[in-house]
Amino acid sequence: MGKAEVLSNIGAGQYTVRLLYSRTRLDAEIAKIDATIANLELLIASMEDGQDKEIRKLFVASYEKRKSFLQDNMPADPVHTVWCADLSDQIEAGTVIGTIEVPGEVGTALVRPGYEGAAEYDSDRDGQLFPAIAQTATGAYVNWALLPHWQKFMPTHRFGEITSIDYVSGTAIVSVEPASSSARGIDINTVSELSYVTFQYMSCDAAAFEIGDHILIEFEGQTWNAPKVIGFKDHPKMCGFIFDLTRGDGTKLTPDLNPVFSVKDSTETSVTCSWHYDSENQRWEIRLDEPFVLDQNGYFVSYNCDDGVATQYPSRYKTADKLQPTDLIPFGVYEDEIVYFKVEETKFDIYAFPLVSWPPDPTWCTTAGGLPKRGLMDYLPFGRPYTFLSTLLPMSYPISDQYKVYSSVPYRLRAMAVVPHFKLDELRSLFGGYEWSRTRVDLGSSDCTVCLSYESGI
C-alpha cells in the first residue's frame, strides 16, 4: 500500500501516476547529521590543535560523506501506467491517491477503488513506501527477514480468477494467482482456491463480474478467512450491462447499425444511460449514469438499430409482451437478437383500374403485434401515392412498382385503395391470394375505400 500523484487520465480507468516514496526518515536522518556536524564544528572551533581536534574533523568528514550518500542514492519517485481497481475514470490530474501493491511490496501497483472518492489518499489506511536506504542497517535486516512471513500469514491483497459465481448470494469461488516474495522467491500463498468470497464493488457488487474475470482480492484483518473481491486486476468493468447483440438477419450489431439503448427500472421509469462498443469482444456495454440508486428488482433493457424493431430483453418486440416483471434483469452479461424488418422497392407489373390509387395511398406495413393496433397510422408508412383517371388511362395500364418486405418475424401488411364498387369483384379476382376487408369508409354512391390485409414472414 502506498501513495501516488495522478499525472494524467488515460481513460477507461487507466492512469499515469508518480509513486511518492516517503522521505520522512531520510529527511530526519539528514537533519540529524546536519545537527551533529554543526555541533562538531563548534567543538572543533574551540579546541586547540592536536590529535583530538583532527579526530573530530574526521568525524565531520564521515558525517558529510554519509549525508552525500543518502542524498545521491535516494531513488527518484518512479512513474508508472496503472489501472484503477474499479471503473473510476474521472480522477483528475494532480489528485493524490492511495495505491495497492500486490503482493504487499513494490511490484504491480493499482489505484485504490475510487467509487465515491475512496481512492483519495488516507495515510492511516494506505501508509507509504520508503526505500531501504532510509533505514538503519538493523531496521533493513529485520524488515527483509519478516517480509515473506507476513506476506504469507498476514496477507493484504492477491490477484485471482473467478471460476464460479452466484449472483443471488453474491459470492464466488476464486482461484488464487501464484505469488512469491522478493525475499528468496518464497511461495507466499497458503491456498490455491477461495470459496464464499464476497464482493464490494462500486454500487453493484457481484453484478459487474463474470466467470473468467481476473480480479483483485482484499483480505479483511489480513486473514485468509476473510477474502472479498474489491476490483479487477486490469480493464475494470462498469456497473451496468454487457450485451452480445445480433440483428435478425444474422448481422452483428456494431456502431455501423446506429444502435440505440434504453433502460427502465422496475417502476417503468426511464433511467439515463450511456453505451460503449467493446470492439475487441464485439459486445455493448450499457452504463447507468451516476448518481443512481440500484434497483434491487432489476431493469428492463431495450435496443433498436437500423432496419430493426425496438426489442426488449429477452426478444420481446410485441408491445403487449413488454414490461413484464419476469423480464426484469440485474446487471450482468446477456445475449439477444434485435428483430429485423426492412421494406424495399422492386419491380413488378401491376394493372391499374380507373380511379385506383396504386400503390395504395397510403400503404402501411408492420411486424405482427409489433406496434399498438389502434388504427392504420400505427403502421409504418412506405411507398408513394398514384391516382389514375379513367379518362386519361386505359383499363389495363401497367404500373411497375412493388414493395418487398424482409422480416425475421411474422408481419402484417395493410393497404388502402379507392375503387369503384363495380370493380371490387375484379380486384378480388386479380389479388386472390390476399384477403380484402369489408368497406371501411363510404366515399359516395360509386366509390369506397377498402383495406388489403396480408400476413407472412420469414
What attributes does this structure have?
elongated, 26 strands, OB fold (Dihydrolipoamide Acetyltransferase, E2P), alpha+beta, single chain, 4 domains, about 15% helix, 6-stranded antiparallel β-sheet, Immunoglobulin-like, 6-stranded mixed β-sheet, about 450 residues
Explained architecture:
The chain is α+β, with helices and mostly antiparallel strands and 458 residues long. The protein folds into four domains: 2-137, no CATH class; 151-232, OB fold (Dihydrolipoamide Acetyltransferase, E2P); 240-340, Immunoglobulin-like; 352-456, no CATH class. 16% of the residues lie in helices and 37% in strands. The chain has five helices and 26 strands. The protein has helices at residues 24-45, 51-73, 123-126, 137-153, 424-430, and strands at 2-11, 14-19, 79-84, 96-102, 108-111, 157-166, 171-176, 193-199, 214-219, 227-232, 240-247, 260-265, 270-271, 273-278, 283-288, 299-304, 308-309, 311-312, 332-351, 363-367, 380-382, 398-407, 411-420, 435-436, 441-442, 447-456. The strands form five sheets. Strands 11, 14, 15, 17, 19 and 22 form a six-stranded mixed sheet that branches. Strands 20, 21, 23, 24, 25 and 26 form a six-stranded antiparallel sheet that branches. A five-stranded mixed barrel has the order 1-2-3-5-4. A hairpin with a 5-residue loop joins β4 (96-102) and β5 (108-111). α1 packs antiparallel against α2 (51-73).
